[in-house]
Each structure stands twice: as C-alpha cells, then as structure tokens.
Amino acid sequence: MKNKPAILYVFLANAISGISQGMMMIAITWYINNTIDQPDLYNALFLGSSLLSIVWGPYAGSLIDRYDRRKVMITINVLGGIYMMVCAATALVFDDVPIFLVCGIFIMTVVFYNVHFPNLYAFLQEIVPPASYGKITSAVEIQNQLAFVLSGGLAAVLLEGVPVHVLEALSMQQYAHIMAEPIALEKLIFIDGCTYLVGVLLLWKMSYVSLTERDKRSIPVIKRLQDGLTFLKERPLIFVFGYFSHILFASIMVCSFLILPSYIRHIVEGDAAIFGLSEGLFALGAIFAGILVDRVFRKNRLFGIILFLLLGATIYAVLFFSQSAIVLLVMYLFLGMMNASTRILRTTTLFQLVPNKIIGRTNSFFGVLNTATRILFIVIISQFTFFSDNPDRSMGFLMMMLLIAATVLGLNYKKIQDFKKKTTFD
What we know:
CATH class of the largest domain: Mainly Alpha
Order of helices and strands: HHHHHHHHHHHHHHHHHH
CATH superfamily of the largest domain: MFS general substrate transporter like domains
Number of helices: 18
Largest sheet: none
Structural class: mainly alpha
CATH topology of the largest domain: Growth Hormone, Chain: A
Distance between the termini: 16 Å
Mean pLDDT: 82
Shape: globular
Helix content: over 70%
CATH architecture of the largest domain: Up-down Bundle
C-alpha cells in the first residue's frame, strides 16, 4: 500500500492522543460532577459545546479542505499542548486548576474533535488508494474503540487509585503508597499536554504522496461553505444517504449520555458497575464488528446499513420491554456492533461518493446535522414527562427514529444504488 509509513504515523499519533484525550474528558466529567459537585455546570458545558459545534463545524470543514491536512493536525496538537501546559503551570502556582481553565479544556477538546475527525478521514482518503477504503475505515474504528476502552480503564485507575486488595492479589502491596492513591487532576493535564507534543513530533516526521486532487486555491471561507452546500444541493441522494445513515450514532449518544444512567437505576435497578460494564461491552462489540463488517458487506454496503438500522431498532425495542440487567448488557454488546458496522460502511461509501477536495466540508455538514438531531432528541426526551420519567419509553422513541431512518433509505435504495454505480470507482 502506498504511503504506508505515513499511515502508520497517523495511526500512532491518533492512538496516543485518543487515549489521552478520552481519559481527560472522563476525568473532567468526574471532576465537575463529583469532586466539586456541580452537575448543572457540566450540563451547561455539554449543551454549550454542542451548540458551539453547530456554529463551528461548517467553518472547520472549510479549513480542512483549504489547508494541508498534515499541518492542520500539527496545529491542533501544538495549540492543545500549549494550553494544557499553561493549565498545568497555573496549578503549580496556585496549587489547583481554576475551574474556568478546566471548562476551557472541555470546550477546547470538543472544538478540536470537530476538526480532528473530519480532518483525519479526509487525510486518509487523500493518501489511501480507493481499493483500501474499507480496510482503512475499519482500522480507524477498531483503533478508536480500543482507545476508548484503554482511556476508560486508565481514567478509572488514575482517578480512583488501584484497590488495595487488587494490589495484594498481585503481590504488589509494596507499591500501595503510589498506586492506591488517586492522581491529581493537574498531573493528568500535564500528561495530556505531553501527548499533544508527542503527536507533533510524530506528524512532523511524516511524509506522504497525495493520491487525490485537492483544491488549493485561496478561496474565501464563506465561498467554500457555499460550494459545500451547493455540492449537496445538486446531489440530494448524497444528502439523504449521509444524514439518515448517521441517525444511529445520534441515538446512541443520547442513549448513553442521557437515558442509560436513569434506565440502569430505575428499570434494571443496577449500579455504576453495570454502567461501566455496558460501555465496555459496547466497545468490545464495536471492535468485533470492525474486523468483519466490510468483508461481509463490501458488495452492498447500503443494504448493510439499512439492516443495521433495523437491528438497532430491534435492540431498542428489546430494551423497551425488558427489565433485566443481563439483557441490557447483551443488547449493548450488539448495539456496539451495529454502531461500528454502520459507521464503517457509511464512511467508506462517502469516500466513494464525495471527492477529496470537498470531503471535509461534507463530513462537517453531516456532523453539524447530527449534533442538531442529537439536541432535538435530548429536548424531546428531557422536556416531555412521558419520556423523561420513563427511560424505557425513551428507548421506544429511539426505536421509532431508527425505523424512520431505515424506511427513508429503503425507499431511496434503488436510486442511491444507481447513483453510486455512476459515481464511484470501487
């Protein structure tokens, strides 16, 4: 495969930053909600950063299509590393991290996510031959899920410390004074800052050959945004496919962050261990799907996406009727498989349908629409007592949304397939 060393550098940098940033976000969530006991502040941050994503997303997409994507990645890492080091230095002076700086880390990370992932996919499309699109999107999904698992495990250990009985079982009780104590937030911030700088070094050494044509003209950002909208307006089938194939991801974000904690507490009468285990099984299912899905559905990815939307709806239906913790864990394993499978097939298809010179704006537009859909779901579920007081009914609501998405794609199945045959090179 061409550009193999560059691909390896990108994956290594993405793995290091993914684990560190995931750990940082978990740490900040825990710090605001539990250490300083300000859940309302966290909710405001979560909503505010989502609204910011809607405004920032299209602009970020235009930057991705305008500038060298390697330099975009380097810039993100440089800015992130500088800010983290400033926060760590501030903690040394004041013996604590001011809460406004902690909130700044959360917002900065969300803003960077809106650049990082569309830029990552655009860059990979640029340096990977079309025949390898399926393999590379599968590899990205597997890596991201592994990073999620590792960041969650490390965050749990670093924030809570290793239980003494675990150290005794491992004959490591002599290290209890180090490993049993939770690590301070400012030390995690310093570690995160170091990983940003490691990413800079890896990306700085990377060289590659572009395999696609990019529009390098100095076009104003507003004009690039207009071009992106015009591209989708002239190709409504890409819009239909890109939006409705993304609904499963929106539903899962709402389920995991809004519904699941209440569902575990009130419906299955579980505890935090069930919550953690469900997320771990979700990631495990995603990894399994990443290994197999593109091989199975390579010849008909749209059929696979519709199938997984229907299976996702079935999972929500089971959770609507069930009151069992075991059933919840099994369903979350399968939900992870459905999510990863849909994302892989969807991303690969968009690589085939959208030229690289406009892929950044296209992915960012769909990201903005997905965020807006997520906010709409949250408002409906949280504001209507019928849903907010009954998390099982919220599962039923998500089931209906996936059925609608699958129906729309099914009704446009032949049109999208015909359009794909005329457009793609795979």
